[in-house]
């Protein structure tokens, strides 16, 4: 993307070099204002592959560390990208802030409310900033919808939906062989273990932490069949996944109540045969949009009781971020959203500003996992949602400005 690069070079460390970390690294190596100065991973082969990629891109050889603590101790690292296993994101982010680094963390779910509070308190005490790298917030459709919401096209919002609906049976069942951490969550946890793709764009539409907040949630989980059946069919009866009693329900449904009265429905659905979808829905007093079918209905525009294609609205209400992106050239990485999300992070580091998805967003969105686990254990009973802003949400107006603001 031939954009206006930052006024200075960001010296960046990357922690976690599996599939996600290595793909982010390739995008970062195409940015002229980023220098990769350090790499860290538990696996030597992943580190060596990343080292070779940095050198091949024409950058000096970075330092490599098996220990992320050793990387964080380096003065040559100003900021870090964390792309490790889900349950390690918050502990490493907290350690990085204490080490004086600006942090960009990949997504996932929290393991406890305590670590969410530790995240918030550490950010407030150190003054260091973090960004949750929720790429779906930068999707073309999601940003067009955000633009429409802000212009009042849907009227007053009443209800929103989001989902992570993705057939991951092979990835989970083969998790041990492929060194992928997802399987360990499915074996031992029952809740929405991956909520932020579904929740992030909706939270921005509903101004969560900026005049609104999550108040309570209730979750239920279906029975568990999909992963084990897939393993028995494709891997044989003797494969460990064929004998594992996975704890995660095949379908996990979570309902959230917001302070301003809106409701949000989240669905986690990755253990059964299905095409990919994020199940988006935005519904207000003047109309409704639904991702599945790419349809919209607006009361004063659409034919009565009839859907129409969302395509022309997407173009009509193209967000300025995507207007520029289309002109300059869309990059690889989940349809271009990975690159936009990384640029939002690098720009915030360069300008030392509050990022578009900040510490309060990160704590609230990741807390869905542990709260949904609690609710399921209580038979679907509603559980109270912590206010990680400690009341600041009432008067917070907006995040910092800038071209990537949400």
TrEMBL record:
<comment type="similarity">
    <text>Belongs to the Gfo/Idh/MocA family. Glycosyl hydrolase 109 subfamily.</text>
</comment>
<protein>
    <submittedName>
        <fullName>Dehydrogenase</fullName>
    </submittedName>
</protein>
<keyword id="KW-0520">NAD</keyword>
<dbReference type="InterPro" id="IPR050463">
    <property type="entry name" value="Gfo/Idh/MocA_oxidrdct_glycsds"/>
</dbReference>
<feature type="domain" description="Gfo/Idh/MocA-like oxidoreductase N-terminal">
    <location>
        <begin position="10"/>
        <end position="131"/>
    </location>
</feature>
<dbReference type="Pfam" id="PF01408">
    <property type="entry name" value="GFO_IDH_MocA"/>
</dbReference>
<feature type="domain" description="Glycosyl hydrolase 109 C-terminal">
    <location>
        <begin position="143"/>
        <end position="309"/>
    </location>
</feature>
<dbReference type="InterPro" id="IPR036291">
    <property type="entry name" value="NAD(P)-bd_dom_sf"/>
</dbReference>
<dbReference type="Pfam" id="PF21252">
    <property type="entry name" value="Glyco_hydro_109_C"/>
</dbReference>
<dbReference type="InterPro" id="IPR000683">
    <property type="entry name" value="Gfo/Idh/MocA-like_OxRdtase_N"/>
</dbReference>
<keyword id="KW-0378">Hydrolase</keyword>
<keyword id="KW-0326">Glycosidase</keyword>
<dbReference type="InterPro" id="IPR049303">
    <property type="entry name" value="Glyco_hydro_109_C"/>
</dbReference>
């Amino acid at each position: 993307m031939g954009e206006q690069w930052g006024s200075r070079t960001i010296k960046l460390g990357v922690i976690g070099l599996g599939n996600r970390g290595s793909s982010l690294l390739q995008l970062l190596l195409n940015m002229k204002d980023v220098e990769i100065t350090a790499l860290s991973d538990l696996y030597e082969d992943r580190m060596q592959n990343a080292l070779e990629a940095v050198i091949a891109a024409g950058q000096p050889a970075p330092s490599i560390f098996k220990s992320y603590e050793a990387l964080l101790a380096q003065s040559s690292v100003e900021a870090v990208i964390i792309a490790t296993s889900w349950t390690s994101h918050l502990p490493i982010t907290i350690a990085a802030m204490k080490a004086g680094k600006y942090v960009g963390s990949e997504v996932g779910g929290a393991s406890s409310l305590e670590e969410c509070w530790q995240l918030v308190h550490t950010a407030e005490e150190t003054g260091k900033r973090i960004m949750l790298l929720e790429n779906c917030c930068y999707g073309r459709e999601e940003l067009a919808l955000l633009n429409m919401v802000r212009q009042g096209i849907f009227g007053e919002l009443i209800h929103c939906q989001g989902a992570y609906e993705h057939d991951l049976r092979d990835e989970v069942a083969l998790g041990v062989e492929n060194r992928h951490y997802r399987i360990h969550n499915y074996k031992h946890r029952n809740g929405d273990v991956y909520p932020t793709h579904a929740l992030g764009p909706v939270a921005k539409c509903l101004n969560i932490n900026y005049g609104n907040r999550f108040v309570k949630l209730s979750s239920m989980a279906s029975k568990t069949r999909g992963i084990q059946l897939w393993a028995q069919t494709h891997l044989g009866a003797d494969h460990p996944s064929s004998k594992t009693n996975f704890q995660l329900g095949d379908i996990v449904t979570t309902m959230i109540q917001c302070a301003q009265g809106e409701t949000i429905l989240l669905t986690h659905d990755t253990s059964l045969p299905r095409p990919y979808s994020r199940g988006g829905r935005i519904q207000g007093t003047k109309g409704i949009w639904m991702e599945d079918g790419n349809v919209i209905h607006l009361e004063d525009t659409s034919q009565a009781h009839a859907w129409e294609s969302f395509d022309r609205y997407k173009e009509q209400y193209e967000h300025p971020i995507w207007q520029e992106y289309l002109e300059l050239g869309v990059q690889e990485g989940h349809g271009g959203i990975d690159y936009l999300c990384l640029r939002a992070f690098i720009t915030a580091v360069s300008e030392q500003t509050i990022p578009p998805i900040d510490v309060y967003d990160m704590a609230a969105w990741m807390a869905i996992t542990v709260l949904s686990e609690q609710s399921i254990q209580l038979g679907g009973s509603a559980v109270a949602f912590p206010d990680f802003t400690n009341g600041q949400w009432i008067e917070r107006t907006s995040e910092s400005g800038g071209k990537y603001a949400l």
